[in-house]
Amino acid sequence: MWERVTLHLPGFQGLQTASGCAPFPAPCEPPLSGTVPLGGPNGANFLGHWDAHAEELTLHHRSPRLPAFTFIEIIVFPHLHSPSKGLATDEVRNLTLSADFTHSTRDVSGLGIRIVSDVPPTIIFGVSAISTFSEVTLAFDPPMVGVPVEVQLSFKLNVKIFPGEQIILTFPGFLGDAEDVLQVAGPSAAAFNASWIHPGQPYASDYDFLKPEQEAGVAPYAQKLSVRDPRHIPAQQLQAFSLVLTRREDSMPNAAGAVVSLRVRHPKNLHGIQLPVDGICTKRSVDVILLSTTTSPPVYPTSVSFYKAKVAASSLCFPSLLQSSQPQKRYH
User: Fold this and answer.
1) Beta strands, E only, 3-132
2) Would you say 208 and 224 are in contact if contact means Cβ atoms under 8 Å apart?
């Protein structure tokens, strides 16, 4: 009893538990206080402890010794936050699993042999990467309502973008005729095609999105909200256009972490992409702009605010609105 298995999860965050306990081999007297909530078929057999400094999740075994080769399945209920910068494919190898035993020898059931061994930190195979954006900037030229605008976008994605995969920006409240072929310029223009999707198509009106929240003593986390909930989204913004950027089939995969910089314009001078009638003036008008991808792994529709995106304000904003909402400074 009270042997342990430890997951080393660099970059993960969570509230410290059982902070007054001594490290193994002198763990807290049972029961541990402030434990990580566990579930699954074997959750009741363990107590969980999160060491925020070491970035380690320790599972203390509290039931009679399990036979060798026992399959163990545990679910860690929401307590930990994945790395804010995501988890790139080449970073997965940094996650390790180890085990410490209070008894130096043990019987291997059915084999008639005894071994002396702890399990040193070992790479965990089969772990999926976590895709995420960084350094996101978004601007509109001209920054005015009622006229077609050019969308100026730049970002980094921590996984590769292969030919045929898509980056999708969803713009509730924006206007403009649907168009399959947009004009693309900028440093990354040769690698992407762009289209403006009409409301009712994928990612237009029926999705959830992640909005950054903050609780005292807890790292920022993502809370799911439905765009159909009138408490959060104005009724006129329930339908949304999407700007879809598709990696060209004749291009090489985009390197993970490489900067993508594009300027996109609708070919129709009178019915091109237009800002919402209220402009880009408040935090809410930024929160409802979503980013998603079809990469492997994908990024599900998430507010650009979650990535601390720099979104340029429109010229419709009045000083009182700017002071109350504190939008990002206009840039070019």
Assistant:
1) 4-8, 13-14, 38-39, 46-51, 56-61, 75-76, 80-81, 96-100, 106-108, 113-115, 119-123
2) yes
Residues forming beta bridges with residue 329, ordered by sequence position: none
Q: Report the side by side order of strands in the sheet with 290-293.
A: 192-197, 240-247, 166-172, 290-293, 302-303, 208-215, 218-226
Instruction: Quote the pTM value.
Output: 0.68
223-252 pLDDT, tens digit per residue, is 343 333 434 444 444 468 899 999 999 988
How far lies 237's CA from each of 174, 199, 209, 266, 302, in Å?
A: 8, 11, 14, 21, 16
> Tokens 């399945």 — which residue?
73
pLDDT tens digits, one per residue of 25-79: 445 554 444 678 888 888 888 888 888 888 989 888 877 677 778 888 998 887 7
| Rounded Cα distance, 146 and 72, in Å | 60
Angstrom distance (rounded) from CA 256 to CA 87? 11
d(CA 165, CA 11): 27
Q: Using CA atoms of 25, 26, 29, 34 in order, give the dihedral in degrees to the nearest 10.
A: -80
d(CA 38, CA 17): 13
What dihedral angle (degrees, nearest 10) is formed by the CA atoms of 26, 30, 36, 38? 120
What structural domains does the chain harbor? 4-123 (no CATH), 133-325 (2.60.40)
Do residues 1 and 64 touch, judged by C-beta distance below 8 A? yes
Instruction: Determine the number of helices (DSSP H) and then strands (DSSP E) in the chain.
Output: 2, 23
Considering only the C-alpha atoms of the chain, give the largest distance between any 2 of them, rounded to a whole number of Å.
83
Give the pair of three-digit tokens for residue 153. Answer: 């976008």
Residue 320 host element (H or E): helix 319-325
